[in-house]
Design a protein that fits this description.
With 189 residues, this protein is an alpha+beta fold. It has one domain. A 5-stranded mixed sheet has the order 2-1-5-3-4. A hairpin with a 4-residue loop joins strand 3 and strand 4. Helix 4 crosses helix 5. It is elongated. The two termini are 25 Å apart.
Length: 189
Amino acid sequence: MSIATGRDAQAVTLLKNTALSADIVIPSICCMESLSALEDELKRRNRFASELDLQISQLKRDQTSPYAKSLLSHLEQSLIENKALLNDIQDRLFDALDHLSTRAMIVLTADMLQASIKIPLIEKDLTDNLILHCILANARLKPNEIKVFFKQQYQRLWYIRGSRSFAECRRESLFHSYTRFTWLAALRI
């Protein structure tokens, strides 16, 4: 969703210009999470548009104030741009999802789900905990490859070599002190 909302310009570059020697891997559940975030954004934007409509209606009643006329013009333009921004966010999200659909997806398994329930690595965010378990389970499938995990919100990279256990990840404080994974990808090199 950070790609769609423009919060991370570098993520677009990473997504579209990844070297052939690297694969971007993303848990499939992240796609569902991004669609839910889009629904929330739609609701916020629609509430904002409703408030703009209400204010526009009130300003149209003022026939004498030049300020009301000016503000009316600005709010009408804001209404148009709010709709355009919403369409742009949706288009960018769908473009990112379309691009990701051509890459490797980490499919949620029963084992990943059970591990996320039994071993809380991120206790304050159950969704991110599940995402992390998916990524770590996928990383264990090819223990001799170097994995790079990118965490956009904190601009940190973690390198995982081999098949580390969840306990090792926690002990090394690679993940558990960070509670919100807004954009997370694993690169298999």
